[in-house]
Specification:
This protein has about 170 residues and is α+β, with helices and mostly antiparallel strands. Helix content is about 30%, strand content about 30%. It has 2 domains: about 80 residues, no CATH class; about 80 residues, no CATH class. The longest helix has 15 residues. The two termini are about 20 Å apart.
Length: about 170
């Protein structure tokens, strides 16, 4: 990865929230080593290249961004009203998940888009009531992947794809 101008730094047990350890992973791009391509990747994805991971007996949480610690603290200390089970978006993600899902990931499309340095920011809701979900499960000896895209955001997501295509 260093030849491509990328370096991944993982800090296990970077901090604790109660008795839960949080790992922080940061991917860095070096334009000197990776050239113009690494510089473009850094500009496009830089804000999303820091992730905070926590696993409890009941849930695994990933929060993205250098300032994600406060979000992790809110979720893990119960400060988010109602918790994940009360979220309309999580309920929808669970309802549409693959059979026997063992992985369920959800992200606010608008939240992710707001991190990207796009010439024209798509107008996508960031209120947490909708988002993109991905689930992985198994049935009849086969793995099943379900990607659930909010129908009301498809135009904006395709517009984003066009912008990203033009950035290379």
């Amino acid at each position: 990865m260093k030849k491509m101008g990328m370096e991944v730094e993982v800090k296990p047990d970077a901090y604790k929230i109660g008795n839960v350890s949080v790992t922080v992973q940061e991917t860095k791009f070096d334009p000197k080593t990776g050239g113009a391509q690494a510089a473009k990747m850094a500009a496009m994805l830089g804000p999303m290249m820091t992730s905070h991971y926590a696993v409890t007996d009941d849930v695994a949480i990933v929060a993205m961004g250098k300032d994600a610690k406060s979000a992790m603290e809110a979720w893990l200390s119960g400060k988010v009203e109602g918790g994940l089970d009360q979220s309309k978006a999580i309920a929808k993600a669970k309802a549409h998940a693959a059979d026997n899902a063992f992985v369920l990931a959800w992200g606010s499309v608008g939240g992710v888009m707001s991190l990207l340095p796009l010439p024209a920011k798509p107008q996508i809701a960031t209120n947490g009531d909708s988002g993109l979900s991905l689930s992985l499960g198994q049935k009849d000896g086969a793995m099943r992947l379900v990607i659930d895209v909010p129908a009301d955001q498809i135009q904006e997501i395709f517009a984003l794809g066009s912008q990203l295509k033009g950035m290379h």
